[in-house]
Amino acid sequence: MSHCQTLTPVASLQTRQAADLDREGYLLLRSVVPVPWRDALRAAFDAGVGGGDQWAAPRGVGWRHALVDLDPTVQRTCRLPPLLAAAAQMLGGPFFLTQVEGREPLLGGGHQPLHRDGAGMKAVAALVFLDDYGPDNGATRLVPRALDRGEPDELRSLVTAGEAGDILVFDADLPHGATCNRSGARRRSLLLSFMEERSRAAMEACRAIRNVRMDTSEVFVPCAESPAS
């Protein structure tokens, strides 16, 4: 770990939340985004939407994508204590924010096969919902760890539902995927990921193709490993 990096201690999750997260592989944090931030986040999303030529790599059809990683309210949201605590619970040691972008399934679009992310890297994913979400407008579904039998199984998947301001945080290797936006109602979200500090070099090598513009040097340290004051 470089001595030039900022080390930020991260508090632990509440005991019950930690147990739920360990058992299921995901945690739905209800209404943790402060109400005064939500309009600013939606405005940042809408301002960040552009054409396909703004991305270094092609984006999926049926989605609206937004570049948001330089927005200050987006950055504050990525550092909300409950979110960092959940990431620390799963990663166990020093970690960093690898990227954040905006995604929204369009009418008739958004459906993804159940899949696992990470390519062998230990990673935590999170979705910050900027609009109410449910099975009609493309909400994320996932297979809880307790029901995961190896091969993704739609019959074991659960569709999430809730309100703007919720954050879904989950093990990126858990089978998951968005559903189809049948209603056309807006379902803007911020998709972000955290990885172990040891994965930094690999992530830095592909910054350009991932359109990462923000400073990612901050290192988040679970309290048990926090540096002495």
What characteristics describe this protein?
229 residues; alpha+beta; Jelly Rolls; three-stranded antiparallel beta sheet
CATH architecture: Sandwich
CATH class: Mainly Beta
**SSE topology string:** EHEHEHHEEEEEEEHE
Q: What composes the largest sheet?
A: 6 strands, antiparallel
Q: What form results from the Cα inertia axes?
A: globular
Strand portion = 15-25%
Specify Rg, calculated over alpha carbons.
Answer: 17 Å
Poorly predicted runs of 5 or more residues? 225-229
State the share of residues found in helices, binned by percent.
Answer: 10-25%
**What is the CATH H-level superfamily?**
q2cbj1_9rhob like domain
> Which structural class do the helices and strands define?
alpha+beta
The end-to-end span amounts to: 18 Å
Number of helices: 5
CATH-assigned fold name: Jelly Rolls
Number of folding domains? Answer: 1
Number of strands: 11
Mean pLDDT: 93
| Order of neighbouring strands in the sheet with most strands | 2-8-5-10-4-3
Task: Break the fold down into its secondary structure elements and pairings.
Blueprint: E1 7-10, H1 15-24, E2 26-29, H2 35-48, E3 63-66, H3 72-77, H4 81-91, E4 95-105, E5 123-129, E6 140-142, E7 158-159, E8 167-171, E9 176-178, E10 189-196, H5 200-205, E11 219-222
Question: Any overview of this molecule?
Answer:
The structure is a single chain. The chain has helices at residues 15-24, 35-48, 72-77, 81-91, 200-205, and strands spanning 7-10, 26-29, 63-66, 95-105, 123-129, 140-142, 158-159, 167-171, 176-178, 189-196, 219-222. The chain is an alpha+beta fold. A 6-stranded antiparallel sheet has the order 2-8-5-10-4-3. Strands 7-6-9 form a 3-stranded antiparallel sheet, with no helix packed on it. Strands 1-11 form a two-stranded parallel sheet.
